[in-house]
User: Fold this.
Amino acid sequence: MFNHAVIGLGGMGTWHVENIQKKVPRLHVKGAFDIRKEAMDKTERLGIKAYASLEEILNDPEIDLVTIAIPNDMHKDTAIRCLRAGKNVVCEKPVTLNSAELEEIIAVQKETGKLFSVHQNRRWDRDFLIVKEAKKQGLLGDIKLLESKVQGSRGSLEGWRGHKLNGGGMLLDWGIHLLDQVMQLDPGKVVKVDAHLLKVFSDEVDDNIKLALLFDDGMSAILEMTTMCLINTYRWHVQGTGGTLLIKDWKCNGELWQLKPDAEMTWDEDIVYTDAGPTRTMAPRPKYTMNQLDLPDVRGDWSDYYNNVLDVLEGKAELIVKPAQTLRVMNVIDLLFKSAEEGHGFACCI
Amino acid sequence: MFNHAVIGLGGMGTWHVENIQKKVPRLHVKGAFDIRKEAMDKTERLGIKAYASLEEILNDPEIDLVTIAIPNDMHKDTAIRCLRAGKNVVCEKPVTLNSAELEEIIAVQKETGKLFSVHQNRRWDRDFLIVKEAKKQGLLGDIKLLESKVQGSRGSLEGWRGHKLNGGGMLLDWGIHLLDQVMQLDPGKVVKVDAHLLKVFSDEVDDNIKLALLFDDGMSAILEMTTMCLINTYRWHVQGTGGTLLIKDWKCNGELWQLKPDAEMTWDEDIVYTDAGPTRTMAPRPKYTMNQLDLPDVRGDWSDYYNNVLDVLEGKAELIVKPAQTLRVMNVIDLLFKSAEEGHGFACCI
Assistant:
């Protein structure tokens, strides 16, 4: 049994407490601290100790692990302070506002030998796990064109998400998840990036964005995050040389079709006529040349995140969400911001 | 009544003859020439004169207008020859292999004062006209995120389309249509381009591609052309600040939803829980905050292309597909090829 404290008891901090209590029996949430008095009122309902200060947590020798869920601009200093106090640290995402800040944390992590991991919880989202499993099983052949989209319609981003100073904006909020996922999927290097970071509802932060990544194995990834979508299309569309996968929504409704091994490239209705002309290249393929498969039956279990952290502390496992992986994602994010600022994309090798 | 001859009697040349005969009564297809004997056999069935050479067409004083439908690498020299012979010229797309070649044609067009127009027939495709009309009527507010896709599954490109020398490849074949359409939709300048030009089934030409364009009014456009798609998604997805438009297929099945004027940004089911975490930003909007509209009822009439050309010859109209517009598209294409070769995107002002 490990003892745990949560630093920052806002929406996500509270979510950590409740879900650890429900799903991670090996981890005991001893208490929490938030500088906002109104947030601390929740400790009673949660049945945890109300620490009077961050210092009190750091001085509590029983605390093995802390989770940092405070505004993003405070992650760096707080994480370093916790590591230096001998605590193992889980940090909410975006881990920092840029890769330089993260490098400072990683230096202290190495110096102290303590554990540091970012809560990239969406590696345990079922939609992502299905894509990962389909790739692992080779169901799609070589994956060449991938799209990952999250589509909302609330217009401007809420609260701190709307402020640059707090590390707001869509790229740092959702982009970091979608980038982490796609960089987990493809083992290759990112060799080209470009970003359309639109500020549609804000003068301060990007709220509607498209990211374009090319990998050294030739996979193209386009990521979309929107807050003005009234007709959602899909969460994932993945095209490989041997099959296509579609996941429509968070509930993972979707389809997977494979080319039959002997599938022909010509067929009876060979040309499709549109209003203004014919096309042979884009004529729809008849169903009899394809096989439909069920989506891989994978379940996500978010508690694996904390269980892995605890296994690492017990010396029984390798860390899943590694600082080096997080740094790679932050390096891509730095370059995406730069591409938006300077008005052109970049070659890279990340 | 104008007299017309077709140069090149392959698939598209024959299509021009048949469709002019059916739909453009003011234009009389007098004859055609093709260097391939087997292609010339079609003239009898088509009821048109079999010219013995290109020269014979150029020397026929009755011919007012020629349509060039020969391999793309021969467009430039042939177009210039026809213009110099005093003929008005319609040229198939891609008009040339790059903008420098097109500039040569345009110089001769200006010198001779003859008409030169590219057969960008997909400006008359109904799916495009619906998007154009929705924009014109302001049904979507300010359009910010646009996707235009054509999805096939034939693998490698057929015939000349597979050869670089003949101006093959997806960017020149379909890219030129989708670029022309989106540059017609947005009156602004293209300020940033990037391309993923994958060669999945060929060592020679791009066959599966993504193009990313940013316009100076802040519109982001992503264009997809694929030959390995077993689950087609849609032809258009257009998100504006006030509405979203989806066109699924060539038959123009689709939807259009608008935000109600007083639509709220919060609602009862405020948070959606995925397997690995909550999201408020991406929670689905309830239908009662939106209105569904019919897609604009627009019909495309391809014969308007030739009728416009004839009206211009009669001094009654302005040319619709202008050389300057075509040059703008070719300038973008040049830069997209360059971005793929050099491995990074570009800022521009086209």
Remarks:
- Chain A touches chain B through 87 residues (CB under 8 Å).
- The CA atoms of residues 18 and 46 of chain A lie 7 Å apart.
- The radius of gyration of chain A is 23 Å.
